[in-house]
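User: Quick sanity check before I run a bigger batch. Here is a single chain. Can you write out its predicted 3D structure?
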Amino acid sequence: MHDDGLDNSEEAQAAGVARKPRKGIYVLPNLFTLAALFGGFYAVVMAMNGRFDLAAAGVFSAMVLDSLDGRVARMTNTQSAFGEQMDSLSDMVSFGAAPALIAYEWSLKGLGRWGWFAAFVYCACATLRLARFNVNTAVVDKRFFQGLPSPAAAALVMGFIWINTDAEVAASSMAWPMFALALFSGLTMVTNVPFYSFKDVSMKQSVPFVVIVMIALGIAAVNIHPPLVLFGLFVLYGLSGYVLYGWRRAKGQQTSLISTSTDEPDERGLHQ
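Assistant: Done. Predicted structure follows.
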């Protein structure tokens, strides 16, 4: 009888565990992440069909969507570890693999082994950049990125392709400039150069009326010639980190973005 009581108790506990509701997945923020992933996938497909203008549009669309998923998650209080991992994997496709493959298909393949070397370096650096970002999230100054963020690096590569495609410049003549830009974008992602993150800009605070006017002027300026204006803006952003790094060194200020160190010995080397 005693044994039967134990069996019944164990069965009841098992039934209770079985009835425990499963943890679900938040739809809204992950919907934006999936849309960003589709933008990168669409870009690769368009490049395979020779539509490099649409490929660039796909990556830039992925950038916009990628900037929204995190904000939507915070605004709706739907952050999750699943969403963070999914966002990183989506970024790897849209801002790592896609720009590398598109750049190779556009002009780098004409350089032979040097072409796939540059494409692989960019792709590998994007992977390292995202991995380092994930492990350094808790220790990096939130106002800055450690190295060029992968969406901005993708914008440099795709913006260059876009303006040359729009101007009907022969891709073969741009192979070596593309080679140099791919290496610059890739290696800048894995440097310790600080880039302003704009994360301290609050959308909930009131701003002067002139700020809204400047935003309207900025939108109008982009519409004048989107490929040239967007590429120019990201070129300035890509150089801004080096300017900030040089200014801090000249002033004798700390150039590292790491505010504290982690307890994991295996990760300390990433924080130098």
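The beta strands are 144-146, 194-196.

User: Great, the batch can go ahead then.
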